[in-house]
Amino acid sequence: MPLLIVPLAILLALFIALLLTPVSLWMRYRSGRARRRLQPWVVTANSWMLLMSAVMFLGSAWVIGHWVEGASGHAALGLVAGLPLGVLGLVTSHFETTAKGVHVTPNRWLVLVLTLLVAARIGWGLWRLVLAWRESGTLEASMWNDQANLFAVGGVLLGYYVAWGWGLRRKLRQR
Fold first, then answer.
1. Which CB contacts under 8 angstroms, 24+ apart, belong to 149-153?
2. Which of 47, 71, 65, 21 is nearest to 158 (CA)?
3. How do residues 86-127 score in pLDDT, each as one tens digit?
4. Which stretches does DSSP call E strand in the chain?
5. Which of 40, 37, 44 is nearest to 100 (CA)?
6. Can you give the three-state secondary structure of 133-171, one letter per residue?
7. What is the value of pTM for the model shown?
């Protein structure tokens, strides 16, 4: 009986995580479009850390590319596609300078598009999981070879935030 508790607890945790995913995405959208005060040292540190993250992301995609065909190419293309989105987000955001500092309100439509991109990727991954399970009754290793687009979505998001972070840094220096 005690051995049955561990698998049931794991299944319960996965079920709860699956149920809370839409709530998590909604909260991410709400916080992504919120007005926030920019602190120069935080923006600078974030910009450099995002740049390091992009380098590590491309490096890990190259390593994983030995097992998942096209991972590094999808990661690079996603990163390049995300950069103009970050610039677009910066151009369409609302900046205001007050006595307390500089505040930014990101474009809600672009935040919505990026949130829906993440939701679509999660849904597509779950759909592929269900199809693989139906076809063979098990999860085969060949299913993982079809996951290179995960790197593309990650690259788009990371590219967006790299451009956004460095653009914020530049705007703060101009003010």
1. 149/74, 149/121, 149/124, 150/74, 150/121, 150/125, 151/61, 151/64, 151/68, 151/71, 151/72, 151/74, 151/75, 151/78, 152/74, 152/75, 152/77, 152/78, 152/81, 153/78, 153/117, 153/118, 153/121
2. 47
3. 999 999 999 999 898 899 999 999 999 999 999 998 888 888
4. 36-38, 94-98, 101-105
5. 37
6. HHHHCCCCHHHHHHCHHHHHHHHHHHHHHHHHHHHHHHH
7. 0.84
